[in-house]
Specification:
Chain lengths: ~350, ~425
Amino acid sequence: MLETIWFAIWGVAWAVYFMLDGFDLGLGTLFPFLAKDEFEKRAVLNSMGPFWDGNEVWLITAGGVTFAAFPTAYAIMFSGLYTPLMLLLFALILRGVVFEFRRQIDSPAWKRVWDTCLVVGSFLPALLLGVAFANIFMGLPLDKDGLFQGNLFTLLNPYGLVGGITFVLVFCVHGAIWLSTRTQGQFQAKAVAMAKKLWIFEALLAVVFLVTTAIYTPLWANVLAKPYWLILPLLAVLGLFGQWFMLSKGRCWRAWFCSSLLILGVTLFGVAGMFPNLLLSSENPAYSVTAFNSASSPLTLKIMLGVVVCFLPIVIAYQTWVYFKFRDVITPESLKEGPSY
Amino acid sequence: MDVLTLSRLQFAVAAYFHFLFVPLTLGLSFLVAIMETMYIVKRDDDYKRMAMFWGKLFLINFAVGLVTGITLEFQFGTNWSSYSKYVGDIFGSLLAIEASVAFFLESTFIAVWYFGWKKLPPKLHCASIWIVAIASNISAFWILSANAWMQHPVGFVVRNGRAELANFIEIITQKYAILEFTHTLSGAYILAGFFVLGISAWHLIRKNEAAFFTKSFKLASCWTLIFALASLVFGHMSAGNLKDAQPTKLAAMEAHWETSRYAPMHILTWPDALNEKNAVQALAVPSALSILAGHAPDTEVKGLKEFPPEDRPPVLPVFLSFRIMVALGGLFIIVAACAWLKRRQIEGQRALLKLLPFMIPLPYLANLFGWTVAELGRQPWIVYGLMKTSYAVSPIAVSQVGASLIAFFAVYALLGAVDFYLLVKFARKGPEGVDHA
């Protein structure tokens, strides 16, 4: 039971990370296509300015949850996926310093350097996370000692690439919609137009993703075995169409919530379909790392559950407050007046 | 080089580099919080400008500290997977608690503070920097109690082929953890103190914004002296604690070979690990080591020969790092005391003002040497007495670690250079360099 609860917490931590940092990563990826002049660039940066750092901590938490609750899975996953993980870390390092460094010096060359870091540091994590999770859904070549029998190129298989591109596209739409909630006038119209244009590809890719998932992974079979979990892919589809519907009606915030629903739905569908495997072995299912054979001791799981039950609601409360407090529309005046990136 | 050596090198690079930024965050956050509180209490605009100016330097420093911390958490999995498997039950949970209890607060409220100057009422705004300061220090507590557990594992049982949690409270309240926390923090506060003193002195000698920098100087001189003294006390207690908790580390720090009572301390010493003795050993202070370790001349201090050679840390680097750290700590007390005594007429103290900017790098060195004593002194163990470092490493390829190590060097050198450049630039500009008011 404890293991099952922790599996759920593990999945939720990843889902919330994708929902929150997803729009940062998407906006960073779209940066060169959306932001042309200096105001537009700064508007994009400031739209995520007060939030990206708190969002990224969800990744640390997801990593920490894996380490604390499923140390064996943490050890095998992180050492097995060594190279992609290092690439992810370096990309996030570059993305992370852009906000503070870019504004410090008023020179086009200086700003160009950090603009490039933002794009690379956003696109690469989105892609890598997609590739990694698709491969985790599909199963990794793990031998009986949990050793990963492959390399970076093993991961770049057709389904892995579909996963990567899907993540990038979903995050881009998510980011464009986020930008539309915090801007006005022409620039907002541009963000909405971008979101709607990308939505068509996103919808097409969603179909490809769901079909290839049925071909390459056991997710559908597992979910169909407990049909009440079908609610998750249904919510995702609802979110997908909600995005388009709300954007068309000009309800940007609602479109963003639909977008979040899509991300939560897809991620949790994947998580529910994996249960109880954290790392499915494609060599032999018996070699798989599960929530049960990799879990920490019951005492650790209980103490950590206490910590999560006490502190996570507080985290969610103050992060919501911050989103609420700093959600105002960005204008050239607001960037001049107040502290900004 | 093999995977073990490369992984150790990589962790050293990542940890040293991270800890160039952490101590300033830990200390300067409190100093900025005190400045902003003074502004609210005294309604003196200088204090608001102080919070903004020192806050700007704080943010530039914070950015790199933040991003380099993430790599550390993930490196336990990437490079030390056997270790992670073996101790994750305990070590992993301490890291996870750090993220959920402290790191979330710190990362969320740092943005509230920066973006909130106009959006929040002054008291709430001031509260947000206090939250950042307290959360960063709580964060340090969890990380340091995890490290303390590697130094002196308690509250566990070996079961199911791994170390499992037996007593959580014992782990976070053990003497080693408390002393490591207090000593590391006072070291960090000294660093932040000399940072403020040095930059203030640089401006004061140029008669730039005298009122502003005199106020900064006064605050920092009290702060630095308090923690320079505290560091001595906690450092002494930490070393004494090693006598029972980590005898090999203490023996290496002092190049002490034979177990003995009335153990002296030699002013001049040069260890010779190969021949298990000291090549140079002169000017003995009788029983000094025994007295320092146990407050009594007949305290028995274990020597390195008590342990098989393969269980001893590398003596020379631990010994030297310890001596340098202690010497620097002594220097900090003297200089901080001078700064504190002269704080009321500081503008006339040209010699002191000229010296202080050159003091800025020294606490950085002291912190790094301190960590060298702590980490190298624990070797060959990754968890003292329980797991050897050589058993902890991941089954990965040399090419993987080699490539990532080169990337670490390149990216970190670049980040460090940019951060250093920006800090110097804006420290020199003074309060007028703050872009908003």
